[in-house]
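Alkylphosphonate utilization protein
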Amino acid sequence: MSDALPPCPKCASEYTYELDPLLVCPECAHEWAPQEAADITVIKDAVGNPLSDGDTVTVVKDLKIKGSSLVVKVGTKVRNIRLVDGVGDHDIDCKIDGIGAMQLKSSVVKKV
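Predicted structure tokens:
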């Protein structure tokens, strides 16, 4: 039954259970309403660190930009990211110096 329940939003434990109208985490004792769990999505970088708005990240692989000859090189720092529900699985909105505004996948960045 725990397969259908969302993981704990506080500690990400997968062993949550229902207790009347609430969901409960047995590992950290966090209690929350099921509606809250639906609103919370945790976006993680390439190594599993949770990301949030305003973070600084570095690119972990070269990225060719469609329709252009520009390339975002490995190690490029991207400051002040915004997490969005973008096109496909692009979930980071940012500005890269020398290139401009674009969206990135969280799987190609690492939190600094």
